[in-house]
Design brief:
The protein is an alpha+beta fold. Helices cover about 20% and strands about 25% of the residues. The protein has 3 domains: about 5-55, no CATH class; about 70-215, Glucose Permease (Domain IIA) (Distorted Sandwich); about 230-390, Alpha/Beta hydrolase fold, catalytic domain (Rossmann fold, 3-Layer(aba) Sandwich), CATH 3.40.50.1820. Strands 6-16-10-9-8-12 form a 6-stranded antiparallel β-sheet, with no helix packed on it. The relative contact order is 0.10.
Length: about 400
């Protein structure tokens, strides 16, 4: 089934509101049990086809780790604690109802008690949020998760990985507008002794009685998936995401939406190391573009395709190379393909804006008009433009 048809189906399903999902077919089975289903992310984009036998099941299966495992470690609070304080981005003084733990994106968040999931949903500024009721009657809530592996009503056992640390959410920017993402990847943790009312200031160190983090980020849930991850592949395509919303998973969804096959393709976050194996095609969006600049400078001859997708262009040695490009003292290799919009960059990224404007004006990089936002689909438009080369 083509991706174009799947997107048409998505629109139809959205319009119907899913009201036929429990419809009884002539066979006596519900529609989902007979013909399978489609899975979409929170923005409505297609993720995957769900086979009939898996309809109603959680995919992937929620992993459970031995709570005595050395893989787990205690949480250490960051600079934002419970109480009134100035927001690090907006500068507005508000009540901060929990404690922030500055873990990296994709770190596993592990509940070390039995419990019940009271809620697992997207909640505005808190993004992907999970509330757990513990055996002692205490409820804890976490915010900004990258992924959630549980749903409301689930009964969990000690050691359950309920989600991954992220930076999701949509918060007021202090200027009457809204901004995507939190202050950066971290875990916001709240404590309610009686599961009601406002969160309270937790006893110091008490959080380690409720959860821990895992040293293994983004735990491998499926054995076959782990084998694929560990295998060295020649002729590999690497797609690098950027900060905040532009995770590896986001880049993968944009790739699939463009109708491209994921075979021999690795999607990584901007802070990840390049995978092993022979890489023939590499491209990066936003901060991931900084990684690609470095590859251009160091060993671009090893690649048949290099992509700069609205790239970040500050910092050494990138700045030195960009200056040479602008002055005409060097040129980009023929295997570099680009699409960017200098107008997307400003504020603390003013140098990136200036660099891109000059590179675009001099026809060194190709100018586009897409937005550098989750809904802007910049990577998707890049993938579509160069699809015939990437296939």
């Amino acid at each position: 089934m083509s991706l174009k048809l799947l997107n048409i189906l998505r629109e139809e399903i959205s319009e119907q509101g899913g009201k036929y999902k429990q419809a009884i077919l002539p066979s006596g089975k519900r529609a989902g049990e007979e013909i399978g289903g489609l899975e979409f992310d929170a923005t409505g984009e297609f993720k995957q086809i769900i086979s009939p036998e898996d309809v109603g099941k959680r995919t992937p299966k929620t992993p459970v780790i031995d709570i005595e495992s050395p893989d787990l470690y205690d949480a250490k609070p960051g600079r934002r604690r419970y109480g009134k304080q100035k927001h690090p981005i907006t500068g507005v003084v508000t009540m901060h109802w929990g404690i922030d733990f500055g873990e990296s994106q994709g770190t596993a968040y592990v509940i070390i008690t039995d419990g019940e999931i009271m809620d697992a949903s997207y909640q505005g500024c808190c993004g992907n949020s999970i509330t757990v009721k513990h055996p002692n009657g205490v409820c804890t809530r976490v915010c900004h998760l990258l992924e959630m592996f549980v749903k409301k009503g689930d009964k969990i056992t000690a050691g359950t990985v309920v989600g991954l640390v992220g930076s999701t959410g949509e918060c007021p920017d202090g200027k009457g507008g809204m901004r995507k993402g939190s202050t950066g990847p971290h875990l916001h943790w709240e404590y309610k002794p009686g599961c009601s009312g406002s969160p309270q200031d937790p006893p110091d160190g008490s959080w380690n009685s409720y959860f821990k983090f895992s040293k293994t980020t983004t735990p491998k849930i499926n054995k076959k998936e782990k084998e694929d991850e560990d295998e060295d592949i020649d002729g590999l395509t690497v797609v690098i995401g950027g900060a905040d919303f532009a995770t590896a998973d986001y880049m993968k969804k944009q790739w699939i939406k463009a109708g491209l096959s994921t075979k021999n393709v690795k999607f990584i976050n901007q802070g990840d190391s390049l995978p092993s194996g022979t890489i023939t095609k590499i491209m990066g969006f936003s901060g991931g573009g900084s990684k690609v600049w470095k590859e251009i400078i160091s060993n671009s001859s090893n690649y048949s395709f290099i992509g700069l997708i609205d790239p970040y262009t500050q910092g050494e040695p990138i700045q030195t190379y960009v200056n040479k490009l602008i002055s005409g003292k060097t040129s980009l290799p023929d295997n570099v393909y680009s699409l960017c919009n200098y107008k997307n960059w400003g504020g603390q990224y003013g140098k990136t804006r200036d660099n891109l404007e000059k590179l675009e004006d001099n026809k060194i990089l190709l100018r586009g008009d897409y937005q550098h936002t989750e809904a802007g689909n910049y990577p998707y438009n890049f993938f579509v433009k160069y699809k015939n080369i990437l296939e």
